[in-house]
Design goal:
Layout (H helix, E strand, L loop, with lengths): L2 H56 L10 H6 L1 H4 L11 H31 L3 H20 L9 H8 L11 H9 L15 H12 L3 H11 L6 H4 L11 H12 L5 H31 L11 H8 L5 H5 L5
Helix pairs in contact: 4-5, 4-7, 4-9, 5-12, 7-8, 12-13
Length: 325
């Protein structure tokens, strides 16, 4: 045997001896396992029990004597059963629901603008601006409501258009209140609502009240700006007409400190006006795609009528004053 082989053999025997020694120690380690295992199982069981109890404590209450508090507040059952279709076409459902969603947004926006008008009446510009800024986000959501109808083809619309009868968006009472708050008033627009006394009374009240823009101009006058008496004392039931003197006031404000509260109020109103303009244009485009230049369902000129509406600016002097700054 070579010296190298002899050394390898010796190392092998030593390693084998160490292995036996390690094996001899194993029973001692092994003897501790049952106790450790018992403790582990007990600990794990306690943790599982605690977790189960915590989960049970976090579980919502599912047992109510009557309807759920959510239903009592939201009236979801009422909302989701207001869709009374008049045709067999499956596309009518999205048209009807989208229109109903728009009506809900009209309601929220009217609430915000009335809140802003009341705040302006008491010279509380921060509260007015906060309400107007909320309405900006709501107007954005309203405008996005056109998305499901934006690519409606003539054939798709015709499949249920007949079921609408003479129904038309310009007959919306809540949208009319929006327009009145913007200063676009017309007593003739109350006529379609004579058969609904409560709605007619609400519109008549809104017709004779100051618009949101009227309240802004009255605030400017109280702050010492030269708003003419012809504007402040005008017939509130008539449509607001642009005034060169009002334009000059906005020009002065925009030429001064842009961080001032009145200039910031003007910009917030401009944001509102822009989104109203976008709403009108989105309405125009959706109608043009769906029915071309046909007469509207309510007997209006359809697209031609909407085109005329789309050219009108809300709060006109806020736009024209920019040419003079």
């Amino acid at each position: 045997m070579s010296p190298e082989a002899h050394e390898t053999s010796v190392e092998t025997r030593e390693t084998s001896a160490e292995t036996r020694e390690t094996s001899a120690e194993t029973p001692e380690t092994s003897t501790e396992t049952p106790e450790t295992s018992t403790e582990t199982r007990a600990s794990t069981g306690a943790q599982v029990s605690a977790a189960a109890q915590a989960h049970e404590d976090e579980s919502p209450n599912l047992d109510f004597a009557g309807t759920t508090p959510y239903e009592d507040y939201v009236q979801a059952d009422v909302l989701t059963h207001l869709q009374h279709l008049r045709s067999d076409d499956p596309g009518e459902m999205v048209f009807l629901v989208t229109t109903q969603v728009m009506e809900l947004w009209f309601t929220v926006i009217v609430h915000e603008w009335e809140t802003a008008a009341q705040a302006l009446r008491r010279d509380d510009i921060p509260v007015a601006v906060a309400a107007l800024k909320r309405s900006i986000r709501e107007l954005e959501a309203l405008n996005h409501s056109w998305t499901p109808l934006a690519q409606l083809t003539p054939a798709q619309f015709n499949s249920y258009r007949g079921a609408l009868g003479e129904g038309s968006g310009f007959q919306s009472a809540m949208y009319r209140r929006m327009e009145f708050l913007l200063g676009d008033k017309s007593a003739s627009m109350l006529v379609p609502h004579r058969g609904a006394p409560r709605v007619h009374a609400e519109l008549e009240k809104a017709l004779h009240e100051p618009s949101l823009y009227d309240e802004v101009l009255r605030l400017l006058a109280r702050r010492g700006h030269a708003i003419p008496a012809s504007v402040l004392e005008r017939d509130l039931a008539r449509k607001y007409e642009p005034s060169p003197e009002v334009e000059a006031v906005w020009t002065e404000l925009y030429s001064g400190d842009e961080s001032g509260d009145l200039a910031r109020l003007g910009e917030t109103l401009t944001d509102v006006a822009e989104l109203v303009w976008r709403w009108r244009n989105d309405h125009l485009v959706a109608t043009r795609r769906a029915m071309g230049s046909k007469t509207g369902t309510g007997g209006s000129a359809g697209v031609a009528w909407l085109e005329k509406r789309a050219t009108k600016n809300v709060f006109p002097e806020l736009w024209t004053a920019r040419s003079h700054v």
